[in-house]
Each structure stands twice: as structure tokens, then as C-alpha cells.
């Protein structure tokens, strides 16, 4: 474990957004483990109906979602039904959502968040860092909850150099700006999850400048990710000395408040 950089007893809540399929969950899961390696207590909450944010922290097994357990147990639901310890002792939870075409996913996330608060999730586990992994193709309803309700103080946007990913990043930025007058979350910057397309770094860096934010880090494209996920693991656990694991550790330092070289 490294030196703890956050003020003791002060819970830091952050949200990761980005276009669907851009690698948010992979990024967040590796970040969570890297942060626990630094000595922090971490909670990761997946905010996507697919409920697969934490799958690489739980050996490839999906955990029961908040909405599913609410449906099955009603008022009898407890935190033990929906919060599980994963790799690095990361506290894992998934909001879940309705079946495709059968309801409003955004509303489902709102309901799940309200239930977790009612059960006292933050008071019971008291993590140093809470990370919300949020689907970012749309920023309405429940998907914008971490921005609008003040759950997260900081927003990180995962993107590639592809146009649709950058378009989604700009939409997320605008959603944050539209709620900034209420003192809610602020965008800390962009995280480039590389797809190895031509001039990718330059394209994302230019987008960051236009968005009046910064490009915080480039995560290289690496087959180790697929190898690790085939084993139900994060790259940080599977290949701790690899280049991509070192990139996730740099991101952990940024999130914790230390600016790496």
C-alpha cells in the first residue's frame, strides 16, 4: 500500500461516463483494484441495465442487482443482498434495470439509488472512494443522476479518438455544465482508451481543448485486457507489471489527488 492522499474520513465520490462499449467498466474495474493497492477502501456501483460493471471483480460472475432483489424481496431487501466483496476487497453493487423494451432504464437507476440510500449503504461500508460507472450514450433521467443530485463531485469521461465517442463526450460535458450552477459535479478531464486509430492522441487532445478541459491519460490498447477478462480478472491483477497496468495505476494516482509524471 502507498501513502493515502485523501483526507481521512472524507468520502470521495466520482463518476465515469462515456459512450457505450468504449471501455468504461474495464477502466473503472482496473482503477478500483489499483486504488485498493494504494490502501484505499473502494466501492464500485454499476449504473447500467446490463449489470456487468463489476464482472471482472467477481471472477466473471454477475452479482444480483438492486432492482432484481427489490422485485424478489420487496421491503425485506438488505445490503447483504446487493453488496458483495470483489477483487482487492472492492465493494461491488449493480443497480440493474428493466428488460430491453420493458421499461425506463433511467427511472430504474433512480429507484435503485434511492433504495441504496434508504438502506444506508455509505454509512455501513464507509468507503474512501465511491466510483459510479454510468452508461453515457444518453445523459437524461437516471443516467444523469450522479451529475444532478450531487452524488459525484468529479466526472471523468472515457473516450477514444472516434467521432461518435467524442460526440458522446461532448454531450456529457454539456450535461455537467448545464447543472454546474447548482454546485454539482465538475468534469476533471478525458481519459483516452486507445483504439489505435490514426492521429488519435491529437484528436482527443484537440477535443479536450475545445471542451475547455484536459486529456488526463492515455491507456494503451493491449491484448492483456482480453486475456485477463477471459480469466474473470482485471489486468492490474493478471499482469501487474504490464504497461497497461501501470497506466491504470497512474489513473489511480490522478483520482486520489496525486499527479503522476
Q: How far apart, in Å, are the first and last alpha carbons? A: 19 Å
Beta-strand content: 15-25%
The count of helical stretches stands at: 10
What would you report as the Rg, rounded to the nearest angstrom? 17 Å
Topology:
Layout: E1 12-18, H1 24-37, E2 42-47, H2 66-73, E3 84-85, E4 91-94, H3 105-118, H4 121-125, E5 129-134, H5 145-148, E6 154-159, H6 163-178, E7 186-193, H7 200-210, E8 215-219, H8 224-230, H9 235-238, H10 243-256
Parallel strand pairs: 1-5, 1-6, 2-4, 2-5, 6-7, 7-8
Antiparallel strand pairs: 3-4
Key words describing this protein structure:
single chain, alpha/beta, 10 helices, 37% helix, 17% strand, globular
Task: Describe this entry's structure for a reader.
The protein starts with 11 loop residues before the first strand and ends in a 5-residue tail after the last helix. It is built from ten helices and eight strands. An eight-stranded mixed sheet has the order 3-4-2-5-1-6-7-8, sandwiched between helices. A hairpin with a 5-residue loop joins strand 3 (84-85) and strand 4 (91-94). The protein is of the alpha/beta class and 261 residues long.
Brief sketch in words of this structure:
This protein is of the alpha/beta class. The protein has ten helices and eight strands.
Amino acid at each position: 500500500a502507498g501513502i493515502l492522499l485523501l483526507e481521512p474520513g472524507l468520502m470521495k465520490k466520482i463518476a465515469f461516463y462515456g459512450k457505450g462499449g468504449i471501455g468504461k467498466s474495464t477502466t473503472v474495474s482496473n482503477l478500483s483494484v489499483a486504488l485498493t493497492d494504494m490502501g484505499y477502501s473502494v466501492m464500485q456501483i454499476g449504473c447500467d441495465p446490463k449489470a456487468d460493471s463489476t464482472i471482472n471483480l467477481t471472477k466473471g460472475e454477475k452479482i444480483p442487482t438492486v432492482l432484481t432483489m427489490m422485485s424478489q424481496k420487496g421491503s425485506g431487501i438488505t445490503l447483504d443482498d446487493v453488496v458483495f466483496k470483489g477483487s482487492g476487497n472492492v465493494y461491488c453493487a449493480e443497480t440493474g434495470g428493466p428488460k430491453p423494451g420493458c421499461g425506463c432504464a433511467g427511472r430504474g437507476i433512480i429507484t435503485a439509488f434511492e433504495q441504496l440510500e434508504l438502506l444506508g449503504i455509505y454509512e455501513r461500508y464507509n468507503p474512501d472512494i465511491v466510483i459510479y460507472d454510468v452508461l453515457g450514450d444518453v445523459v437524461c433521467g437516471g443516467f444523469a443522476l450522479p451529475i444532478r443530485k450531487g452524488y459525484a463531485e468529479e466526472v471523468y469521461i472515457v473516450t477514444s479518438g472516434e467521432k461518435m465517442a467524442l460526440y458522446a463526450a461532448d454531450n456529457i460535458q454539456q450535461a455537467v455544465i448545464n447543472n454546474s450552477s447548482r454546485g454539482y459535479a465538475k468534469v476533471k478531464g478525458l481519459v483516452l482508451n486507445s483504439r489505435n486509430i490514426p492521429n488519435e492522441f491529437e484528436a482527443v487532445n484537440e477535443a479536450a481543448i475545445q471542451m475547455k478541459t484536459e486529456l488526463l491519460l492515455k491507456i494503451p490498447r493491449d491484448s492483456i485486457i482480453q486475456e485477463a477478462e477471459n480469466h474473470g480478472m482485471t489486468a492490474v491483477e493478471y499482469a501487474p507489471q504490464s504497461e497497461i497496468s501501470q497506466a491504470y495505476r497512474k489513473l489511480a494516482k490522478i483520482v486520489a489527488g496525486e499527479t503522476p509524471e
